[in-house]
Structures are given as C-alpha cells and as structure tokens.
Amino acid sequence: MSYKQWFDAHAAKHAAIMEKLTRLSDDEVIEYFRFENMVKNEPDFCPLYAENKKCHDTEELNCYLCACPNFRFSDAGFAVEERKILFSTCSIESPDGDRYVSESAIHQNCAGCIVPHRESYIKKVFDRDWLKIMKEVPSE
Fold it and tell me: Which branch of life, at top level (predicted)?
C-alpha cells in the first residue's frame, strides 16, 4: 500500500467518525479521540487497536492527528540521497523523529515523536475538517 492510498483510506475513516460527532463540542471531539476511547468505540480506525497497542510509547495518546500534519510523503520520492530515494520527511524536523534507511530508500521514522498526539497541540491546530489541518500547520 502506498502512502497516498493509506492516507486516503485514513481520511475516509476520520470523516466517518467526525460525521457521528457533530453534536459534540470541539473539546469533546478531541477527548473522543483519546486512545482508550478509540480502542473501545472505533476498533477499525487503527489495526493496532485489535492488540490494544499504541503506535507511540506515551501514557496519554490522542489519535485525532494520526497521520501527522508535519509528515510529508511522496510515493514518487522527493529526492535521491546517497543513491537512496527519500520518500518521507518531517516538516518541523522534530528532534524526536528519526530516519529509517534501507539499501534503496529513506523513510521518516516518527515512532519517537508524540507532537501530534498531545491534546495541547491538537487544540492549537484543531479544525473539524481534518484535511484542512493536513495542508498547513504551524510548528510547535
């Protein structure tokens, strides 16, 4: 599955959940996306939910900005670095991010970064139209 295919499928899941939450306030929507609630009420949102497993090692995890707005990807690649294709990167160059480098590719590794999963960050960039957030986000 390409980055774009995953992103489009994820956007559709996110939109379906938001459609159910129209009666909630913005703060209540953000609270709804807390990991513990999502595992219980939206088990198909993430494949890790079936194992009650988090994508990031943090006590408080909010899944509203799964598909980080700072993650940039290109299925065709952005550039070639040392004969490897750069497929993804972090637009804020988070010091907690890393790179996964294979023989032919470079991918952003976001496992150590929790920036988009903190509710304070989500509240700062929140929009009920999740795709608007994905286009342009101020750095934290």
Answer: Bacteria
